Amino acid sequence: QVKHPCRRPPLQSPLRVAFQQMAYTVKYFGIPALAEPVRLLLHLGRFDWKDETMTFKEWPAIKQTTKWGQVPVVITPDGQEMTQTKALVRYFGKQVSW
């Protein structure tokens, strides 16, 4: 049986192994839109993550608590908040070995 070269197992750096024990949190509306590429990368990378959805009615109150007043927001296992979809896609894309 020949293994496909693109189907490599994910890299197992000590830092990644430690963070895989805890969950990332994605905060966004209950629609795909801007958070979908991030969700897909978390799924493809086999990360432990949870999806916290909000409604459009809840958004004005939540907006004041987010960095730069925008979503999606990803909270790392160590509690750091990350925003900006393109930056998140680059960050998780580099960690996913496909």
By DSSP (H or I, 4+ residues per run), the number of helices equals: 4
Order of helices and strands: HEHEHEEH
Strand count, sense and closure of the main sheet?
4 strands, mixed
DSSP strand (E) fraction?
A: 15-25%
The dominant shape is globular
Low-confidence stretches: none
How much helicity do the residues have?
25-40%
Calculate the mean pLDDT score and round it: 83
Radius of gyration: 15 Å
- The number of distinct β-strands equals 4
Distance between the termini: 19 Å
**SS-derived structural category:** alpha+beta
Spatial arrangement of strands, main beta sheet? 2-1-3-4
Explained architecture:
The chain is built from 4 helices and 4 strands; from the N terminus they run αβαβαββα. The protein is an alpha+beta fold and 98 residues long. The protein has a 4-stranded mixed sheet with strand order 2-1-3-4, with helices on one face. A hairpin with a 5-residue loop joins β3 and β4. α2 (36-44) packs parallel to α4 (85-95). The model has no long low-confidence stretch (mean pLDDT 83).
